[in-house]
Amino acid sequence: MxxxxxxxxxxxxxxxxxxxxxxxxxxxxxxxxxxxxTAINALTMGLATTFVLxxxxxSVSALRNFIxxxxxxxxxxxxxxxxxxxxxxxIMAISLELHRSLGAFIALIVVNCLILGRAEAFASKNTxxxxxxxxxxxxxxxxxxxLWIGVVREILGSNSLFGIALFPDAFQTWTVMVxxxxxxxxxxxxxxxxxxxxxxxxxxxxxxxxxxx
Length: 213
Hints:
The protein is an all-alpha fold. The chain is 68% helix and 2% strand.
C-alpha cells in the first residue's frame, strides 16, 4: 500500500520540478514563448493545456485496450482535438478579447508535443488514476512555468501585473519584453535560475551521501 501511495505522489510531483515540461524537458515552447507576454495570457494557456492534458490522458488510458496499435496516434489526436475544441469555445464564451489575444495558439494545443507525448508515453500504458495524476502534475508544472515567464514579461515590459499598474509612470519599461524575442530572454533567466537550483540540490545530496556512514 505504501509503495502505491509513493508512486501515485511521484506521478504528480515529478511534473512540478524533476520533469517540468518547460524548464527540464523543454516541451511546448511555442505557446510558452508566444502567448506569455502577459500573466493572464500565460495563466489561461496553462489552464487550457492542463484541462486538455487531464481529459485526454483519462480518455486514452480508459480506451487503451480498445485502440488498435496501428491507429493509436490518429486516435490520440482525435481525442485531443475534441477537448481542444471544447476549450476554444469556453474561452470564446468567457472573453472574446482574451480569445483574440491567444489567437491560433489555442487550436495549436492539438499538436503540442507535451500532450501527445504524455498520451503515448504514459497514459496508454497506465491506469486512469495514474494517467490523471501524471497529467495533473505535468499540467501544473506547465502552468507554473508559463505564469513565471508571463509575470516577468508583463512587469518589465508593461509595468503591470494582471493589468494592474505597479510602479510610478517614471518606471522605464523594457519594450523588448512584450515582443516575441522577450520570451527568449525571460525563458533564459528562468532556465539559469532553475539549473542553478538543481545543481545546488545535486551537490547537497552528494555531500549528504558522503557524510552518511
